[in-house]
Structure formats: C-alpha cells, structure tokens
C-alpha cells in the first residue's frame, strides 16, 4: 500500500496534471484536495489535449475513482461543463467513478461579482486573482457563512441560507463596490437546476476514503497551485486562499497524516509565476520571452502570459522543507534544449548580505536579488529520450545539480508535454 500526495513546489503551473495522469495508472483513487476552478491542468495524451479545472486528472483513466474533497470550492456551472465535455469525448461514462464531498463549499454568483469588483478597485495593489470567486468563497467558509453542497441539494435549506446571505452580499456590492444587486429568485432557480445534476455525485467522501485506506487501496492526492501560493506559507498576501501544501491533503479530504506515505513536489526546470508578488529570478528580457514562447507559458485557466525566470534553488529547498517532500518530479527540461548557458539561483543578495534560505518577510523578499551559478547547456533535442543515462551529459549534470541544491531526490524527468515523453527514475507507488 502507498498513498501519495502530488504538490506544486513553486508558484503553480508546474505540470502537476501530467504527473498525476502518469501516477494514476498505479492508483485506485485520485483525490483533489483544495482550490477551485482558478487552477487548470493541461494534459496531452497522444494527439489529444485536455484542459481540466476541477475534475481530477485521473478521469482520463478508465476504472479509476475520482474524488473532489471537502477542501475544494466548487463552481457548479464549471463542473457541469467539464462533465459534459468529458462525456462528449467518450470519457466518464460511469457516474459512480466521480464523487463530490457533501461538505465542500459552493461558489455563488455574488462571490464572483465581489472578487472581480474588489480587484478592479485595488489599483497598483492587485493580487492577480482570476476573478473566479475563490477567495470570497473561502472567506465565507472561514466566517461560517458558507453554503455547502449538502445545503445546495436540500431545496428548503438552500433557500433559507441564501435568504440569510444575500442581503449582506448585496450591501457589499451596492454600497461598497458600486455594483448592481443580485436577486434571490434568479440565483435560486439557477442553482436548483445545478443541484438536480450534482445530486448523483454527492457522497460522504471522508468515509469513502477511510474505508479505502483500511482496505489497502492506493490513493493519489492532487493539489492545485503551488507551495509559494499557500495562504499560510506562501508570499502572503500574493497567494491563493487555501492550503496548497501537503498538509492540505489531510484537512481537505479527512485522511489522517499517518496514511500519507510519499509526497512528490512538482517543479519546472526553470520557474514561472502568474499574478503579482515578488519573483527574484524573473527575466524581463529576451531570455524570459524565449522561455515563455518555448514553454508555451500561458495560463490554462486565464490565458495570461506567465512571468518566467531561472530555477530558484531557495524556493525548491523551501518547498522540500514545508511539504516534507520525498521526491521531485522535474518538468519541462526540454524547454532548456536551446540554451548554451543555463543559470540557477543558489542564494539571494539582500541589503549587503547573502541569504541561503527563503526569507519569510515579504518586504525583505521583494528586495532580494539572485546570486547565480552558470551551467553549460546541451543544445540538442531530448524529447525522444526515455532513459536518464541516455540524456546528454550536461542535461544529466543539470538534473543532478538541482537535486543537490534542493536536497531532495529527483524521481521523474519530463522531456515533453505528452504522457510518454517522460523518464521515471522512481515510482512512489512501488
């Protein structure tokens, strides 16, 4: 038995979808544990490209059970659209293979309206939210004002809770944000229609997972975003609104920490970020543009161009520390194929001092400048290589150097976007 958590080790967009897709072959359950449709996984299987925002990547494998845990916030419209698209493509023919936690919180229209209006009024202090209503939904969850899926599928309970919440939300929209109010009737009718579709997927998923753990089934936990966007451990306030780190797999599903055996951090061979906030190795030059173009660095959810930079070993070490990583899956090594010289940030220079650990103070972090080590590139196409020993010597040395700097073994190397363009050095399910 092995239960494995897959977590982003940078600022998100590291290629978790592909890694989860590969590991799903060895798992019985694939569980999404936090975030919402502000995240996107792009998967390439053969010639088919699939983008998922809510449903776990394991849905592309027949016979696997996919679960969306209580730590996720759900936009019913987006979820239903994903189901419709998957079924149209011949997937998800058995509805029993997809379960929704009855305890997860539901994104309401006022959450999205508030999210967008707040960001518009933030001026130069914008967080970089996707405007999907994720943050306001988590606010209501923590404030004990949220509407959960179990409420939505109970018509009377939903009506009562919506009537309780709407006056306050309309006050915020009208008086504070200058927006038009929402009507009870319109929301109630729309979301009752969603409830009729969602009801068939609802379950006590904590109990389901508990039983599967006891039966020795293999469970793969799938996170969204990345370590540096964790609401507690990321570059606050330029973070998401949930626990993206490995600990979120337990609180977001109800599975005990004792039942987690491996934690795999996903990291690009360079680094990217979407939205505002500090980014020491960001490249605002032709090199950054080359990384963006070659790596197709545009958000799967928003289409926004990602900020690109060289690999940051301090971020990697931090991710190893706060997640307890047992392995790193290194993605997009092939994006570096054309570079004659590749840089790696091994320390920061700040206020005349050299730092070898990530500072927790945001003001200090914003002043940090990278200290680079230069490594020779390999300048050859590696996308057809399937064994680590067959990689060019400089590519092998680069991977080994990142392993040394992060203090964690690299267990997978991705050399292209497709499922088969992968070198597996160690399978955490073994």
UniProtKB/TrEMBL annotation:
Q: Which cofactor does it need?
A: Mg(2+)
Please give the Gene3D superfamilies that the UniProt record associates with this protein.
Adenylosuccinate Synthetase, subunit A, domain 1 (3.40.440.10), Adenylosuccinate Synthetase, subunit A, domain 2 (1.10.300.10), Adenylosuccinate Synthetase, subunit A, domain 3 (3.90.170.10)
Annotated cofactor note? Binds 1 Mg(2+) ion per subunit.
According to the record, the segments passing through the membrane are none
- One short Pfam name that applies is Adenylsucc_synt
Record's keyword annotation contains Cell inner membrane = no
* Localization, UniProt: Cytoplasm
Q: Which EC number applies?
A: 6.3.4.4
Q: Which GO terms describe its molecular function?
A: adenylosuccinate synthase activity
Q: Which UniProt keywords apply?
A: Cytoplasm, GTP-binding, Ligase, Magnesium, Metal-binding, Nucleotide-binding, Purine biosynthesis
- Catalytic machinery residues: 13 (proton acceptor), 41 (proton donor), 141
The source's superkingdom equals: Bacteria
Residues holding IMP: 13-16, 38-41, 130, 144, 225, 240, 304
Fetch the SMART domains from UniProt: Adenylsucc_synt
InterPro entries documented for this protein = Adenylosuccin_syn_GTP-bd, Adenylosuccin_syn_Lys_AS, Adenylosuccinate_synth_dom1, Adenylosuccinate_synth_dom2, Adenylosuccinate_synth_dom3, Adenylosuccinate_synthetase, P-loop_NTPase
Which residues are recorded as binding substrate? 300-306
Q: In which pathway does it act?
A: Purine metabolism; AMP biosynthesis via de novo pathway; AMP from IMP: step 1/2
For binding GTP, which residues are annotated in this chain's numbering? 12-18, 40-42, 306, 332-334, 414-416
User: Subunit comment for this entry?
Assistant: Homodimer.
Q: Which HAMAP family match?
A: Adenylosucc_synth (MF_00011)
Q: Which family does it belong to?
A: Belongs to the adenylosuccinate synthetase family.
The name under which this protein is listed is Adenylosuccinate synthetase
Which organism's genome codes for this protein? Answer: Geomobilimonas luticola
What gene makes this protein? purA
